[in-house]
Amino acid sequence: MNVTDLTLQEVLAINPTFHFNVESLYVESNLPDVFMTGGGRWSSDVGRHFVLNIGTRKIGFGEADDVSRVKGVEILEDGTNLWWFDALFCKVWKQDKEKGRLIEATNTYILDSLQERDAALELFVRAMKAYDLRVAVNPRAEPKVDVKFTDRAIQALKSGEFVA
How many domains does the chain have? Predict the structure, then answer.
């Protein structure tokens, strides 16, 4: 099955399950073409960014595109890592080791419908809930992660900013 030929809603309906790969530090799923990379910063001016890969689609999400808006990761009383995201469907850069410069990993992403946008968000949240670096230290540990969106991100979602 080629997930690139499917809508994001159809990919979500397959119900991919995500897990943290301690060797690659990627979040992988039971669908080989659906995975998440990232967690780093390409500049000290921005927060950490992630790329949700769904076939040939690469969708960027970040703590913030401006370090002044980074809320960071909160550790809740029960040990859950709570990630706050401000930059949705955003451009993400990565370091090209061969060329020694930054290259574009994703561009700003616009979706065809609210349903596609919501499916992309749900897939991202599911992938993030598996992203727990503590599992790299203790592979028997269960990831404890939750995801929230900043007021600014919620307002952008309500305004339809990411839909054509």
Answer: 1
pTM recorded for the entire structure: 0.90
pLDDT in tens, 18-59: 999 988 889 999 999 999 998 877 667 778 889 999 999 999
Rounded to whole angstroms, the Cα distance separating 125 from 147 reads 6
Helix (H/G/I), strand (E/B), else coil: 39: strand
Q: Which domain holds residue 17?
A: 3-158
Instruction: For the beta carbon of residue 163, count every other beta carbon within 10 angstroms.
Output: 16
Structure tokens at 36: 């998440």
Burial of 100 (0-12, 13-18, 19+ CB in 10 A): exposed
- What is the rounded distance in angstroms from the CA atom of residue 132 to the CA atom of residue 80? 9
Look up residue 57 and give its amino acid.
R
Q: Which of 42-46, 52-56, 112-116, 130-134 is least confident?
A: 42-46
DSSP strands (E only) in 14-163: 18-20, 27-29, 34-40, 49-54, 57-62, 73-75, 81-85, 87-90, 92-96, 101-106, 145-149
Does residue 164 lie in a domain region? no
Task: Please check whether residue 163 lies inside any domain of the structure.
Answer: no
When pLDDT is cut at 50, 70 and 90, the band that residue 151 belongs to is very high
